[in-house]
Amino acid sequence: MKDFRHQNRLYYSPVEFAMNYIGGTWKMPILVALREGPVRYGDLKKSISHITDKMLITQLRDLEEKNMVTRKAYAEKPPRVDYALTERAKQALSVIDALHAYGAFLMKEEEITL
Amino acid sequence: MKDFRHQNRLYYSPVEFAMNYIGGTWKMPILVALREGPVRYGDLKKSISHITDKMLITQLRDLEEKNMVTRKAYAEKPPRVDYALTERAKQALSVIDALHAYGAFLMKEEEITL
DNA sequence: CAGGATCCACGCTGATACTG
DNA sequence: CAGTATCAGCGTGGATCCTG
Predict the structure, then answer these.
(1) Which of A57, A75, B3, B98 has the greatest number of beta carbons closer than 10 A?
(2) Number of structural domains in chain B
(3) Does residue A11 lie within any of the structural domains?
C-alpha cells in the first residue's frame, strides 16, 4: 500500500486513516452512545462512564470537525444542545460492532469474566 | 459496559481490549502481511514499508506474547526464522478488512487520491 | 536477525476555576 | 445546563542511532 498525506499528516494505510476518525479512548464510546439518535450533552456524559467534561468536549469538537457528528443548540432555557451522527459516522457502527465482537472473543479466550 | 482489568490494566470496553492486540501503527500491517501463510523475517520487513528492524522485532515479540503469531526458527545455514498467524489472529483479519474498507470509504469522501 | 540507548511527541488525565 | 480555560504531568508508542 502506498502512503499518502492528508492535512499535512502522513498515513501508511487506510486503516490508519480510519483510526483517526474513530480511534482513541473515547470516540467509539461516543459514537455508540449516539447510535439510536440525537443525545443531549448531559445524557451523553451520563451514559459514558469515566469520561470527563474536558475529554467529552474535546472529542465532540474533534468529531464535529471531522464531520462525524452534528451539534444542534436550541434557544431554550435551560439551554439544550444535542449531538447526532452523520451518515459517514453511521457507517462506522458496523466496524465498531466487529471490533467489539472480536474483543469479546479475545476476552473469552483469555478467560476474562466481568 | 462495565469496565474490567487484565494484567493489571484497566479497560473500559471490549473494543479497547481488542485494540491492545491489533492496535498501534504496526500490528495490523504485520498481521495482514502474514495472511497468506508463514513469512520469513526478511520478507516481512521488505513487504512492510517504513518499518524499522526495531519496531518489527518489538511488535513481533509483543504479538507472540499475545498469542497472535508463532515464531519458528530452523537450524539451517543461513539461519531461517519465520512467523505465522495463530487462529485467534486469523479471526482478526475480517475486522481489519472492515477497518480498511471504512478507511477507504472515508478517503474517497475526503477526496484523497493516491 | 536481534537488540540496547536515547529521546520526543502525543493522547490522556487531573485539578481548579469560571460563565451565560 | 452546557460548556470554557489553563497548567501540569505521565505513560507509551514510535523514531533514530548504534551494536553484534
Answers:
(1) B98
(2) 1
(3) no
pTM beyond cutoff 0.90: yes
Rounded-to-integer distance, Cα A67 and Cα A87, Å = 9
The set of cell numbers assigned to A68 is 462525524
Which of A12, A17, A96 is the closest to B29 by Cβ?
Answer: A12
CATH number at residue B47: 1.10.10.10
Mark yes or no for CB contact A106/B18 under 8 Å: yes
Helical (H) or strand (E) element with A5 = strand A4-6
Distance of residue B89 Cα from the nearest chain A Cα, in angstroms: 10
Measure Cα distances from A15 to A70, B1, B26 in Å. Answer: 24, 26, 11
User: CA-based diameter of chain B, in Å?
Assistant: 53
**Any domain includes A16:** no
Cβ-based burial of B108 (10 A; exposed 0-12, middle 13-18, buried ≥19)? exposed
Say which residue the cell 520487513 belongs to: B45
Asked if strand C contacts B80 at the CB level, meaning under 7 A, the answer is yes
Smallest CA–CA distance, residue A37 to chain B, in Å, is 19
Distance A55 CA to C12 C1' (A): 8
Q: Within 7 Å: CB of B90 and strand C? A: no
To which H or E segment does residue A65 belong?
A: helix A53-65
